[in-house]
Every structure is written in C-alpha cells, then in structure tokens.
Design goal:
224 residues, 8-stranded mixed sheet, alpha+beta, single chain
Length: 224
C-alpha cells in the first residue's frame, strides 16, 4: 500500500470510530499518593468471562500507569459497572453523480459512495436530527447537484457502557470516574484487543494534574 493509501485508510478508521469516553475527578485529590489498587465487585457483566476481560483490561492500563495490583488493601478500590441497552443506529449511503468532464479517454461521470454512521445521543430522538418519521425501513434522501441520491436505514443495536470508579480506600470516597460507550459488535469475544484499546483511551489522561490550590483546605494558623 502506498503512503497516500495508508493515510486514507487510517483517516477512514478514525472517522468511523464510535467509541465515546468521558472522565471526571475530584480536583482536590493528590493522585500521586496512590501506588496500589484492588479490584472490587461493582456491577458485573452477565457473562463471567466478559467480566474477567473487563477487569484484565482495566488492570493492564493501570499497571501501565505505574500502579501495582494487590489482592486486598490497595490504595485505590477499582469498581467496574457494565450496562447494556438498545439504541438506534442510522446508516446513510449517498451515491453522487457529478458533472461530466472531458478526458483523453472520452467523457464520463464523476461520482462516489460515502457511508455515514452515527450513534443516537442519549436523550435526543433521531426525529429531531434526521426527520420526524424515519419509517421501519428507512427513508430516501433528496437528489442534490449532479444527481446525488441518499438512502438511510435505522436499526436497533446493543450498546455497552462501562463505568470505572476509583475509590480512595482510606477515605471510602470516589476520586475518579470514567465512562466508555460503544457498539457491542465492535468487541468480539475472541479478541480482547478492542476492549484494551478502549480502556487505554479511557485512561489516556490519568492521572490528573496536581490538586487545585484554590480548593485545597488551607492549614490552620497557630494560635497566638
């Protein structure tokens, strides 16, 4: 494959990614004081093998951050929660027939096909985005300049959401939370690679920066 072809392929992969991650943390916590972690029971996956793969992926990424896993008594308690729901996926294919142009080989049409795939955001019906009535079998788009034609279909697909909570074991307080959402079809049971990649992206910015000075409790001044 040429360098240009490789760049196009990589761009296509990035453009079609459906993984969504978000994180939050307590800005007053000094994460540099956490050195060990223990996996604790959260909301397990229905399949025990899936739960093992989730815990292994989280443990691997934390170990890569310099934390050491211990059976009990870790500085951090790690809880994972899995929720599976059905969501709408819209797939649109557009075939465009562009203008005719002269060439040494005669005259021909310029066109192409562009697949588009999007996940319905939580709390936002697709009727507000792509029309009020999508119909059971989808709907047909409009013809644009040059005779472009779009066909859109709607289907229900299972979506998994993994929540990872890090709890300060000494204070029993939540200090960090990450949430990853994606289509379950992107994570085949016989390939742990995609799940590990998803957890690596979830923890990409871990640990957070130093505590916010303005929010740290100031030491009490000695009495005169």
């Amino acid at each position: 494959m040429t360098r240009t072809g490789l760049a196009i392929a990589l761009a296509s992969l990035v453009g079609c990614a459906t993984l969504r991650v978000q994180t939050d943390h307590d800005p007053t916590v000094d994460f540099s004081r956490f050195h060990t972690f223990t996996i604790r029971k959260g909301t397990p996956a229905p399949d025990p093998f899936t739960q093992v793969r989730i815990e292994q992926a989280v443990a691997a990424v934390l170990a890569g951050k310099g934390l050491r896993q211990v059976p009990t008594g870790g500085d951090l308690g790690v809880y994972t929660h899995l929720r599976v729901s059905q969501e709408q996926r819209i797939t649109t294919q557009t075939v465009g027939y562009g203008p005719w142009w002269p060439s040494p080989f005669g005259v021909g049409p310029m066109g192409g096909m562009m697949p588009y795939e999007a996940m319905a955001p939580e709390g936002m019906p697709y009727g507000a985005m792509a029309g009020d009535d999508l119909g059971d079998g989808g709907y047909e788009g409009f013809a644009g300049p040059g005779g472009a034609l779009s066909t859109t279909s709607v289907e229900e697909v299972p979506v998994g959401r993994i929540t990872v909570d890090l709890v300060d074991a000494s204070r029993r307080r939540l200090v960090w939370r990450g949430i990853a959402r994606d289509y379950l079809s992107n994570y085949p049971p016989d390939d742990p690679g995609p799940l590990r990649s998803a957890m690596a992206e979830l923890f990409a910015d871990y640990p957070p920066g130093p505590p916010t000075a303005a929010r740290r409790r100031a030491p009490l001044a000695p009495r005169p």
